[in-house]
Amino acid sequence: MSLSCRRASLWLAAAVRPVNRTLLSLSPSPSPSPSSSFFRPTFTTPSPNNNPQSRPSSSSSQWKQRQSRDRFALAARVQGLRSRAAFKLLEMQEKYSLFRPRRNQIVVDLGYAPGSWSQVALDATAPDGKVIGIDLLPAQPPKGVSTIQGNFLSKAVQEMCKNFVLEADLKRRKMERRREWAAKKSIEIEEGEVEERGSYIDLERRSAQEEEELEQEKGLNMRVVDVVLSDMSEPWPQTQGFKINSISNPYLSLHRLMNTSGISLRDHAGSMELCKAALTFASETLKPDGHFVCKYYEGSGDDELKMVLKKMFAKVHREKPMSSRKESRETFYVALRRREDVTFERVDGMYKILQNGEVVCGIV
């Protein structure tokens, strides 16, 4: 056989060889409501190949294959989101309107890593919203998000977060006062009742007095947060890699993030404890009519937590987003419009619900 014929036969064999490849079609599918704006791609997958070399050789490759076929993971990659978890919050935002733009809202994201929920919150509260994330694991924060790396259950970390939100609230009130002053002056100009502006020194003195008044008011009212989000999960204890200080280390950023341990009772108990800790923090910092979202794993303590939330909030919804995997036991409580006279505190190792300073009931 001549050289040219041999090349042609090889080319023909390569052309007719079947290709094991996922066919992707990024076209939005019908949404549950006409106003839905988040992206839902659809895809088709060819029949699996019986070639043993194409089968996954480990749990890591299985996870990669599942991610490559997951429509929400693919859509998150296309839209520049940190993870597919962003669509869970987008669905809840679409349904309950947790965030409002141009309202100077302050949002606290507990367990923010890798940052997809913080991305959604920052975009939904733009242009003047403030988002702070807290997580035990190191992660590069999204642009515009302030973060604290530390254990949220630590009192020192909680105090750092409270000081941060108080500073953010101080800046918000200063901005609101400037807007009110500008609106007042514009009305006076329209009505022709403009007073003498005074000297530059007088204006600076007046501004300094207003800042002193705001500084004195700072800390008197801790309830300044608009939305508290909790997507926390207990990480696996670290057993190696202590000398590696890198936010991209796979052990630090992936293997210690616990989804489920396989023991439903342990997962449920751990999630309930984290939800109660987040609710205690929300009781101290969440303003009246503020919102609270927490993730938990289903179990026997669900109804008890729902009872507590119903006493603290006007509306409580149990939510299982479509973007949450069907095999996952994770569910979310969405609590809307916090009541002003009800608090949730931990006293002597027991959580208690107080109304107007009086204990209503206590739970373990």
From TrEMBL:
Task: Cite the Ribosomal RNA methyltransferase FtsJ domain residue spans from the record.
Answer: 82-338
Q: In its UniProt record, which GO terms are filed under biological process?
A: methylation
Keyword check for Hydrolase, yes or no.
no
Q: Segment Disordered: which positions?
A: 25-66
Q: Which UniProt keywords apply?
A: Methyltransferase, rRNA processing, S-adenosyl-L-methionine, Transferase
**One annotated GO molecular function:** methylene-fatty-acyl-phospholipid synthase activity
Biased amino acid composition, Low complexity = 25-61
The cross-references to Pfam families, in alphabetical order and at most eight, read: FtsJ (PF01728)
Q: What is this protein called?
A: rRNA methyltransferase 2, mitochondrial
Q: What organism is recorded for this protein?
A: Podospora pseudopauciseta
User: What is the organism lineage in this UniProt record?
Assistant: Eukaryota, Fungi, Dikarya, Ascomycota, Pezizomycotina
Question: Its encoding gene is what?
Answer: MRM2
